[in-house]
Each structure stands twice: as C-alpha cells, then as structure tokens.
Specification:
mainly alpha; 434 Repressor (Amino-terminal Domain); 6 helices
Length: about 100
C-alpha cells in the first residue's frame, strides 16, 4: 500500500488536479489587479506570451517568479499561497 500512495504523490504536478487551483489563482491575482496579460508581462520584463503560457501551465514558475508575479499585481506570496489553499479546500475558483 505504501508504494501505491507514493506513486500517487509522485505524479507530475502538471497532471494533478491541484494544478488548476494554482493556475486559477495566478489569473485571479492578475485580473483583480486590473492588469492585462500584456500589462503584467511589461511589469515583469517579459512578453504577453510568457504570461499566457504561465497561466496555462505551459511555463512552470519557481518560487521567486511567483513572488515577482504577486508583487507586480500588488499582493505578496503569502496572500497568494493562502488563496491557493482556500481554493483547494473549497473547490471553488477564486473570484
């Protein structure tokens, strides 16, 4: 049994259902800040395509990149993480 649980946890995050909460929260933070993908890309020194790819999950962000994203949107990493956790608990997409 321990092997079965380990294999479930070892699944790539891209394919885990939790990933949708992660991505939805990235989008929600940006849209609540009143930023378009192009606006956010400009603030990050990246392209609109980069923001689109990140929000779709095609580009994986590390912790510092998520922090930069949050700061550009007027929030912080802790608030973002709390929102991800709330989304996972409730199963409701962030507003």
């Amino acid at each position: 049994m321990a092997v079965d649980r380990l294999s479930e946890r070892a699944q790539k995050s891209l394919y885990r259902p939790e990933n949708q909460a992660f991505l939805a929260t990235l989008r929600a933070v940006r849209t609540r800040a009143g930023l378009t993908q192009k606006d956010l890309g400009d603030l990050l020194g990246r392209s609109q395509n980069y923001v689109t790819a990140a929000e779709r999950g095609a580009v994986r962000l590390d912790g510092l990149q998520i922090r930069d994203w949050c700061k550009a949107c007027g929030t912080d990493l802790v608030a973002w993480a709390r929102e991800v956790e709330k989304t996972l608990r409730t199963g409701k997409a962030p507003p």
